[in-house]
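Onboarding guide, step 5: your first structure request.
Type a short instruction followed by the sequence, for example:

Predict the 3D structure of this protein.
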Amino acid sequence: MGALDPSSTPLKSLAESKGFLYGTSATPGDLKDRQFTDVVIQQCDLMATGLQLKWNMLRPTPEKYNFGPADELLGFAQQHGMKFQGHVLAWHNALPDWFGSYATPQNAQQLMLSHIKTVVGRYAGKMHSWDVVNEALLPSDQRSDGLRNTPWLQLIGPDYIELAFHAAAAADPHAILFWNDYGIENESPEHELKRKFFLQHLTALRQRDVPIQAIGIQSHLDASSKHFPGPQFDAFLHQVSDMGLKIMVTELDFTDSLPSSDSAARNQLIASRYEQYLDLVLKHHSVIAVLTWGIADKHTWLNGNYKFPRKDNSPFLPLPFDTNTQPKPAWYAMARAFQNAPSR
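The system replies with structure tokens like these:
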């Protein structure tokens, strides 16, 4: 292959040549930006819903669903030959205001199952994959099983995870169903403990023939971290692969805490970390997709909403394209990692 160039060698082509997908999250608001849509069409063959299938966006009341925004994203993806990923079915966050007073131990299981049957069923045959259970682990909640003490766990019990996967598989037997989580990438005791619990749950789910096909690794990473992913994370990926599970990088982006606000130096650091991380991950043949959480800095969730802003209040530079939707060093780093990855 010739010189790497965003227009002639887009990331999706580099990924496809090795047997995996590259994609991004998006919202209907993003689609109003022609520069954004042009680069997504050029670079991506997989699109994930950013907000539109979260409970608080989808369920204005217990009886009503608002599928319009998600349908708009699906239409865009289909028009441009992209696969579609749904985010998210069972999560402790982004629950609607009515949930707290409406959901009870008596009705919560049926509420969750009917939601999954309705939502997954609506998009059956149109989804590449579903984020079925999101962020279900939190060892600091001090449970012996490492599970997060979520409303679903409180109302249903730990079986909510298994029930959610069975319901999703019944509603769409062809979509890839995955458990998505964060805080499992770094070389630190906290992340190693979370990986341990994750493996325990994955092993138990597989032994009980629960229809989970993959894990999602969010990969919101700190380029400045001294605990950057390394051998322990690599070993975890091997263990997941040995179970017969697929792996997806689902929400990749980078913050940094360099003291300098020099964007060139920060972009170079972030690019080097993209390449380092993807080189580690993509050597595993079980990896079937890499998604960045957004594709251009102008639409990143990190600027304006992130709870840990930079000390100098300068914007984060987390993605492969800049605020003018021009390729950054991170794009070239990703392209090299994709080019160097083994074929699936």
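Each response can be followed by summary notes, for example: The mean pLDDT is 97.
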